[in-house]
Amino acid sequence: CEILSSLPLQMSLYFNVYFFPFWWLITVAILYLKYPVLSDYYKFILVTIMILVSLTEVIRLYLGYVGNLLEKVPELAGFWLLTLLPQLPVILFLLFNEGLKIHSLERAVHIVFAAFLSFQVIAAFFTLKRMVNTLATRFRLTEFHRLEEQRPGPG
């Protein structure tokens, strides 16, 4: 009975749960301050991004906890995909797009959030790989034992 969940991934998820509200408050406060000087399309993009990131992050962290602690491959794969596809590109957009008039505090929290996401993508990939290989091996052994029991004995 080997434990397949990843302690570094779980620690990262734990700290991310506490960091996300801090990130959200800083980002919304700075968005409120710079909103009047932004162009109309950046206003729309930033509000949409905040809504998207907020909803996705709650779902992503839940799937990460369930997938890692309960060793469930579909949930952990969902966590990995939500981290890799919407979250990481959006944070990198917020970090590197100079048209957004990025404040230094905003850049700092985006860097920390991007570091969390990058580490979680890598850690979740290796955890998923280990879980899938172990579960496939267990399945093959179970099938082998079932076939052994069904095979007629000599004589």
From TrEMBL:
Pfam families: Transmemb_17
Main location: membrane
Keywords for this protein: Cell membrane, Cell projection, Cilium, Cilium biogenesis/degradation, Membrane, Transmembrane, Transmembrane helix
Listed GO biological process terms: non-motile cilium assembly
Record's subcellular location: Cell projection, Cilium membrane
PANTHER family, per database record: GEO07735P1-RELATED-RELATED, TRANSMEMBRANE PROTEIN 17
Protein family according to the UniProt entry: Belongs to the TMEM17 family.
Name listed for the protein in its UniProt record: TMM17 protein
Organism, as annotated: Eulacestoma nigropectus (wattled ploughbill)
Organismal lineage: Eukaryota, Metazoa, Chordata, Craniata, Vertebrata
